[in-house]
Amino acid sequence: MSADSDQPVLEAIPLFSLPELKQPFEGGVYCGVTTLPDGQHVAIVKLPDEPDRRLLSWKQAIAWAKSVHGQLPSPAIAAQLSFLDNGPFSKTTYWTDAPRNAHYALSYDFQRCALDMSGLMGELRVFAIRLIPLAEPFEAYELEMRVRSIEARFATAELSERLASLESRLPAGPLPKGAT
Known about the structure:
single chain, Mannose-Binding Protein A, Chain A, 2 domains, four-stranded antiparallel β-sheet
């Protein structure tokens, strides 16, 4: 658990250990990767837990998400998740983690794929996510792409040499009639 919350401290995982979208992963369903405002890259996992009550106020939703060691999605993550084909969401409005002032918070309507402003005392659906840090994902990805690029250049050079060798064995002048 982290010192300032009751949430577990999650270890960073390699980018290449992620499953395909909508597959079981780390106690939930893997829903993609995003970059947080601080620049950290994270995997998004929708937790399977559901609250005892179908509809909750915003404060109840925040407390419930923490109780399952998760959090509500940010508006950006909710929008990203709405574009999953046959995603694990009902076509209705869910809370996000974004309060706007003392009376309203942003919610996300999965039917219209749009942000809404909802009163904090109103009750909406809720789901929890867990964000799992990725271990230097793009540095590792860039390194692998460089290795593949070098391998491709060697393969291209080898193919060019073979082609030149074959071309040198071809007879000079036009091909005989019927040769293709």
